[in-house]
Every structure is written in C-alpha cells, then in structure tokens.
Amino acid sequence: MGLDQWAIAHKTVNILGHPTQVVREIACWRKHNRLQGWAESVYKQQGGTEEFNFVPIDLTLEDIITLEHSVKCGNLPETEGFFFGQDSYSDMNHYFEFVYERDKQFCQSAKQLIRDGWQIFYNSWW
After folding, report:
1. Which of 28, 45, 56, 100 has the most CB atoms lying inside 10 A of its own CB?
2. What is d(CA 74, CA 29) in angstroms, rounded to the nearest whole number?
3. What is the dihedral sign for C-alpha 123, 101, 81, 61?
4. Does the pLDDT value for residue 82 go beyond 90?
5. Each residue's pLDDT tens digit, 89-113
6. Gyration radius of the chain's alpha carbons
7. How far apart are CA 77 and CA 69, in angstroms?
8. Strand runs (DSSP E) across the chain, as ranges?
C-alpha cells in the first residue's frame, strides 16, 4: 500500500491506414509525495475538483518546464498523506542520489516527446 505514480507518453500513429494508439511508460515513482503535491496543483489549475487519486492529467510543455525548474531548485511543495510515506526531502542524500536524477530524466524525456508530438500523462494511485 502506498503512493504509486507513473507517467506515460501517448501518440496516435497511422499504421497501414488505421489510426493506432501507442502508449509507453516513461517514468514511475514510489511515494514521491512532493511530486504528487505538484501534480495535484496542476490538476486543480486545469479545473479538477474531485479527489486527486487515479486521475490522469495531461502535462503540457509549460508544465514540464515548471516542474524541471522546481526539481532543480529543490522547491517541490511539501505534501502529506496517510499513504504518501515520509517527506521526499527528509533524506536529502537519498533524494539526490535516486529521486532527483529520475525527476530530471523524466523532465528531459517528456520535453523531447512533447516536441515529437506525444502527449504526456501523469497518474497516481494511493
């Protein structure tokens, strides 16, 4: 039990004259509560009003650039939840050794995929 998060890339391509949806997972996280807080703020900015649990959000290039800046500056929002585990920044050595690099790689990949015509979706389940 706990917070599981993932990002997928989605694109419709033409295969033998038929539109075909291509989906690929590009990142996954476990109990990265600060990322969840950031994503929930995007969800609310997009007009979301329901509980933010298993609700996919479409991330724009601007969203990813904002996330990348927050990651690099170390200012993702502190976020609490029963299933979210300890604060993502509570052990900075662990964060910078594992999570920080994954966050940066996700941002780089997502930006390139968007430029290549893919849609990026974030989802979570707790």
Report:
1. 100
2. 17
3. negative
4. no
5. 777 777 777 889 999 999 999 999 9
6. 15
7. 13
8. 4-15, 18-30, 57-59, 119-125
Burial (CB count <10 Å: 0-12, 13-18, 19+), residue 100? middle
Place of tokens 């990142």: 27
68 phi/psi in degrees, rounded to 5: -60, -40
Q: What is the pTM of this model?
A: 0.89
Report residue 95 as tokens.
Answer: 């964060």
Of the candidates 74, 75, 69, 85, the one whose C-alpha atom is nearest the C-alpha of residue 124 is: 85
Q: Looking at the 3D structure of the chain, how many domains does it have?
A: 1
In eight-state DSSP terms, residue 62 is: H
Range of the domain at 32: 4-125
Query: Smallest Cα–Cα separation from 35: which of 93, 109, 85, 1?
Result: 85
Residue-wise pLDDT tens digits, 4-27: 999 999 999 999 999 999 999 999
Q: Phi and psi dihedrals of 111, rounded to 5?
A: -60, -45
pLDDT at 83 over 80: no
